[in-house]
Amino acid sequence: MEGEPTLRLRIFDLNCWAIRYLSKRRQERVRLIGDTLRQESFDLVLLQEVWSEQDYSDLKVKLSRCYPFSHYFRSGVIGSGLCVFSKFPILDTLLYQYSLNGYPYMLQHGDWFCGKSVGVTGMGVTAPLLSLSLQLHAEYCRDKDAYLPHRLVQAWELAQFIRHTSKAADVVLLGGDLNMHPEDVGIRLLRGWTGLRDAFAEATHFEGCKNGCTLVPGNCFTDKSELLPFPLGIRIDYILYKAISSYTVKCEELKTTTGPAPGMNIPFSDHEAVMATLHIQRQGQPACATLGTADLALADVVTEARTEVGVGLRAAQRQRYSSGRMAVLPLLLLLLQAVAALATLAGLGTEQPFPKLSFCLLAFLALGVLVLATGLHLFHTMEVKMLHGTEDQMWMALRALQERP
Amino acid sequence: MEGEPTLRLRIFDLNCWAIRYLSKRRQERVRLIGDTLRQESFDLVLLQEVWSEQDYSDLKVKLSRCYPFSHYFRSGVIGSGLCVFSKFPILDTLLYQYSLNGYPYMLQHGDWFCGKSVGVTGMGVTAPLLSLSLQLHAEYCRDKDAYLPHRLVQAWELAQFIRHTSKAADVVLLGGDLNMHPEDVGIRLLRGWTGLRDAFAEATHFEGCKNGCTLVPGNCFTDKSELLPFPLGIRIDYILYKAISSYTVKCEELKTTTGPAPGMNIPFSDHEAVMATLHIQRQGQPACATLGTADLALADVVTEARTEVGVGLRAAQRQRYSSGRMAVLPLLLLLLQAVAALATLAGLGTEQPFPKLSFCLLAFLALGVLVLATGLHLFHTMEVKMLHGTEDQMWMALRALQERP
After folding, report:
1. N or C: which end of chain B has fewer CB within 10 A?
2. Which parts of chain A sit beneath pLDDT 50?
3. Do B92 and A163 touch (CB under 8 A)?
4. Which helix (H) or strand (E) holds A220?
5. B interface test, pick of A52, A73, A74 with most B CB neighbours within 10 Å
6. Residue A271 falls in the annotated catalytic set
7. Are A120 and B164 in contact (CB < 8 Å)?
8. Boundaries of each Endonuclease/exonuclease/phosphatase domain copy (chains A, B) (predicted)?
9. Looking at A71, A137, A150, A271, which residue is catalytic?
10. Is 0.90 surpassed by the pTM of this model?
11. CB atoms < 10 A from the CB of B10, how many?
12. 3-state secondary structure of A394
């Protein structure tokens, strides 16, 4: 079947950084992205951080002729920010929300409110194609990365989800801002456990920022201080792919933008866009699965990830404990106040005036702390459950890997 | 390939109603369930509402010889309550949490805290087998069922999830408490959209409560007043199945328990257990998919479900609006108080004493209402997003159904 025609698929992936009122020159950039997409005419466009539905609608109107099919994934308080534009019919969509996604009280890190998720679109190209657009929890501090366990849970859930959903497709494509460096344990876990291949590593031809970086100091919107340890920038946006049944996928070309858009004075976003050209061809026999070839290395990665999740689990258990302890004090205080109030009502201690104001202030303060502590306790209980569940699943995976002949 | 051996699979499904401190005679019943499972020796046991991990651990110890493989799914604050015991190796597990699951402030209907989800276990029997254990949102009042849209979103997400995950398996089994009557739109949606077949309707031989009911007035633990309109009881626990590739599945026998366990004076739970014997056989050619045979009827069901989700969406939008409005009053009050406090500090109105106590009380009250209203607003915003997303997905499904040749 060597003579079967090759499908050439051009993919565009970008974290648009389009947060209403917060992102700089948002509307201008969204217009620019729309114009470029219309001119360039890709086959599949995966966008992240399109937080405003209005921006999506504007893009949809602008791109309706070149990309007749599109979908916007709704989730969380603000939304998932994910959308897909496609030349090929979108047959089906599915949204999978990660079970852990930061802390609601870390307002400045807004991840919790986004309902971070992976949006899956099933498309009918030549072969059934499954495309995933996603974003994982951001890394705010590489040295003291409190969110690593959450990101690992997300990477694991994502990998499990891909394993379970992808089997019916012939080709799986994943594009998004994974918020992890190429050598990070989460990326190794995701790639190892799913068999996805990195378009940057596989590309025959590459053009763009050095090392394929997508967050570079040269971009006028990036936070330069964050990139100080990485003078070349970092690579956290990826296009990953795999062929499942009797297809082969080759990455012919990978490009990234390099700062300002052509002929313009501003870049598309604070991230660089990633563009891949893939060749998809049917072949006679099923392509051998990439899984199983390096079980030992994979077991090491899973073990490493499980250790990190274990660290997160113990931290969450400590936080659950301390939020529980935090509730004890206001509870005791309220109890004491109730006794005092009852005593006063019973006519005891009438020789001195009852301090109504400070009594009420104290009661409200205690109530506030109690509510807060209870909320925190519930939240950390959920966190413990999810981390524990992931640890279990990883253990099961390890056992399965070790038992393989 | 008519001569291929038949696999006889015996499945046990039960909503155990094992809530610590709340369920009557819980420990006794869990012991009884364990003993029966050990004696009867099923192939696959799907349990719901095992809320206490200790109960699961006890069952695990007791059943370790007959059912060497088991898994407990953790989620939410309390847990998912789902667990699986199996004679066959559990190769893989995945937990999918529904995006909507009741309201956190409806404490008496604790659904929100359970993190209701579907637990998927991939098992290697003769054929790759995917078993799902699950529970959907409870129905508290059939006439004024405020949770119908949430249950429909869950049914839809479940159906979409099954469609996406099941393709790699040869046989899909689903057992659980769907909290829906057989003719309800959610069940019709789930069955129509996935092609799952109802073991009760397909069984060659049936034995048990009339009409296959699983919540019957004869059970000493059921709430008789709830079942007044249904003198025979209701059927809300199901075993559903389908064969995907070149396999056929037939339901040889379906049984339900009928009140007290044999030789005992109490039943296993307030629900009756459902037990099915399935025959799984490989056949030469792929079994025809059940989907596509009745597209028109299916389109009707999806339309009906979409209408209900739309009703829920409008209700959620109203609630979002009123919680937003509710926040305005305390905000204005706080503003007014701030002005009054500043005026007093500036020395205005010193001719009369400043009412410190009522001032503080009012401020705390306003603050409390503000926090509550904001929380409600955020929650209903999420609800609107998810309902809207589901409505979109259903619309896409309808379009795909109508465009089919």
Report:
1. C
2. 1-2, 287-292
3. yes
4. none
5. A74
6. yes
7. yes
8. 15-271
9. A271
10. no
11. 17
12. helix
